[in-house]
Amino acid sequence: MTEARIFVDADACPVRDEILSVSGRLGVETFIVSNRGFRVTEHPQVHNIVVSQDFDAADDWIVGKVAADDVVITGDIPLAARCLEAGCRVIDHKGKAFTAANIGMALSMRELMSDLRAMGESKGGGPAFTKQDRSRFLEALDRALKA
User: Fold this and answer.
1) Quick check: 32 and 49 in contact, CB under 8 A?
2) Paired strand residues for 98
3) Would residue 18 count as lying in a domain?
4) What's the rounded Cα separation, in Å, for the pair 50 and 137?
5) Of 19, 33, 72, 128, which has the fewest Cβ atoms less than 10 A away?
6) What residues form DSSP beta bridges with 89?
């Protein structure tokens, strides 16, 4: 059995530093995937993957590389659904785990909010990212890697 790897949908991820810290501490191979590139550690197990600007290029790269039991970090609900289908564990940057039991509702809510924004009923955006969110994320990442 191979060890779990971490895949990060990095363009809008506020916890890259935390991921790199956990990755380095545990020696987990990690892929930071974005369409602009980020400055990352020199650790040989951390890979900075730069994809094209094409729509969903990072998502497609991640889905094409993940294997069952890998951990994917994303706030992108359709990407989360695709990774769950591949057998991955998926968490968002606030530590919420996406599962087979909750992904349908998450996709439905995403669609509803998109419709409300299109009608001008919602301006989007959620609450600010907090220290508690960061702490929940770190706990969720540790749980996902130990599962």
Assistant:
1) yes
2) 90
3) yes
4) 24
5) 128
6) 71
